[in-house]
Amino acid sequence: MFKAANAVQIRVSIDEIEPEVWRRLVLPVHWNLEHLHLGIQAAFNWWNYHLYEFRIGGLRYGDVETLTEDATDDDPRVFDQREVRLLDFEQGAVFIYHYDFGDGWRHTLAVEEFLTLASPPKQGSCIAGERARPPEDVGGVRL
């Protein structure tokens, strides 16, 4: 008998840093991108006070009101992050999370596996990772 997945395992790494800084997260499949943002913030111990967006298939997802506040007609459209759930992705999907547009922290996310856990997760968990993240407001990778 088929049991639907109730969790997803996602690997998140910060780009352009060697040695690599990464985390492996197990999250409820019903979470949307806004929840994923908060899970990434917690896993990396970011302070969650900068703008962010997701880039999926060339499209921008985030807080529409915040990201379009100063937008011009030339800026790409922003789609609502609450409309995309983790269960909408396929195993193997890769996409981008930008945090702190000033410092430019770019994270690559890879959907590793959908899981059927005995007890559906109510919150996210960081189950693995390596190295501490860079300090906030340090100016990014390229100084």
Describe this structure in words.
The structure is a single chain. The protein has 143 residues and is mainly beta. It has one domain (7-123): Roll (Structural Genomics Hypothetical 15.5 Kd Protein In mrcA-pckA Intergenic Region, Chain A). Helices cover 11% and strands 36% of the residues. The protein is built from 2 helices and 8 strands; from the N terminus they run ββαββαββββ. The protein has helices at 33-44, 64-67, and strands spanning 7-14, 21-28, 52-56, 59-62, 78-80, 94-99, 105-115, 125-130. The chain has an 8-stranded mixed sheet with strand order 5-4-3-6-7-1-2-8. It starts with 6 loop residues before the first strand and ends in a 13-residue tail after the last strand.
